[in-house]
Amino acid sequence: MLFNELQLIEPIQEALVTKGYTKATPIQSKAIPALLKGEDMLGCAQTGTGKTAAFSIPILQNLATKQGKQNGKRKIKALVVAPTRELALQIGDSFREYGTNLEQRTTVIFGGVGQKPQTNRLEKGVDILVATPGRLLDLIGQGYIDLGYVEHFVLDEADQMLDMGMLRDVKRIIKYLPAKRQTMFFSATMPASIASFADTILKQPVKITIKPEYSPIDIIEQEVYFIDKGNKTALLIDLLKDRKYDSVLVFSRTKHGADKIVKALARQGLDSVAIHGNKSQNKRQKALKEFKERTVRILVATDVAARGLDISELSHVINYNLSEVPETYVHRIGRTGRAGLGGKAISFCDFEEKDLLRSIEKLISKKLPEVKGHAYPLRDTTIKPKAKQGQRPQRRNQGNAASNGSSKPSRTNNRKTKSTQSNDRRSKSTQTDGRKSKSTQGNGNKAARGSFKQKRSSGGGGNEIRTSGR
């Protein structure tokens, strides 16, 4: 369907033409007419399907057609809640681009940066607010934000909010909203917990499920290297020295791991940048800018930081660690298959991750081709795979100690032996003082217990609203 068939007002039509958009995506064709009528919506659609325009365009049009001349300070009429700073910024950009010929004012707020510039904009009045949950609750608590006039509420990437433990905050936010409102709920996946939550906030919603026009599983070349955990960095360096890897997104399971990868690559003369929740917003934006402009060809990211990023034309995605959630693997490799473009996804799998690999292969109904004959074949099979997904892996030194059957006494036992010998030598001279010693020990134990209780009672209490990293 063409945009000029969707009964959009002229200012929005002109903005779409300026951006070169003439044909609506499937979710836009289905969502925009329903949302223009004020219907609630439950949308199941992945990033890259055009869902941001699907809700931002009708919100802009509904506000523009209702809103007369501004009298006094602007009130927040539309609220969009997103899980990450990057996604919030992209949504804010979309509202500004599609509403460039309108008078609506959009502001984005998120944690991890100083709040003063954000509160200054809020005090001037805004029509559309895009926010991450933590900073939103923080500024509500400080009295900077009043949600009592909201007419349109969007919850984007709800499944990711569940993964990040944000749904409790979202439920608190909803309590500040008017009961009479239009609600739009979007999620890339629809597990039972998400569907159940959606039922509590939607009223007879229009339900739309959009499958990507191109499945990344079908168009992306995928392969796996079986490799010892300790050799992953060496293999990564060897691969990245090949200039064919001109735009690479490397996924690390942890923030600390992402930083270690960047440092290891730097020692080999390979420039890379990392994005994760511990990075300041300025550093994250700078890293993304350098990567998009190809100033740096390697971006290392965690799943949370990368979700929702608008990164196109990636040549490679490398899974340094396999994802513990099989569906996340599909999200990861889909970064290099946008708009039907091909690409290559490479996964490193150590012995502990074989169960994760089997779960991924079961989900995608495909066995990943193994790269054989490489320089770092898997040799270490002494560590058992995780019994259950998400458990902490067994420590290698514990397993080796058990298998070696070593009778060598531990350092602790050595210390105990020396202490016992010393006590034997002093035993004769201390017999008469034994009773005093016991009395002193008793008093000491009481003091220690009292100190411990004091520490516990003085520990931090209450619920803290954290804004950093959201």
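[next item in queue]
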Amino acid sequence: MGKNYMVIGLGRLGTSIVKELSLHTKDIIGVDVDEACVNQVSEYIEQCFVCDSTKKRILEEIGAKNIDHAVVAIGNNLQATILTTINLKELGVKYITVRVDDSEYSNVLERLGADEVLIPEDDAGRQYAKQILSDTMLDYYSIDQEHAIVQIAIPHDFEEHSLLELDYRNKYDINIVGIIRSGKFFLPKGSDTIKPLDAILVVGRNLKITKFDKAING
């Protein structure tokens, strides 16, 4: 069963995360105190709420207890960010990512319950959404709106195959441009194999890379 997500704060960063996630899953809840912000994402996701995330009871009522991954993207309201993070932690959310504009507060938020602190840059929302969709996508580098370079982890129970055997170009229309093994990088040839616990660099269309990742990692 796939993960479910909650994005709290639907400004530019939060909206870009919602848009990207919605291409891959329907299990997303959007939250903001501003009705206009909620309305702008309603075309992408079905579950949107105008509410105050600093109130734990409200978060509980909209299903925060069942969330696997919450992203707090409130922005420049540090007090709301802190209270929301504490609420999510107390409600048992499995993984909490918090956007903060000043890295000075990163340690504070981590002590209060954030598993990860995100300091946004241009295009950060779309890129970060790619990473949280898959535990096995270790890094994501956007080339354009449709293409990317992604580092994918190979699971420990993967059955060793050569690149020729995988036939990844014909099956998935992607390219494997690098293999990282025991911390060392090399450019692969067709006869080279992919082994358990390797990491591979994949280039291609976003949807094709996601399909390949699911085939490799289940």
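[queue empty]
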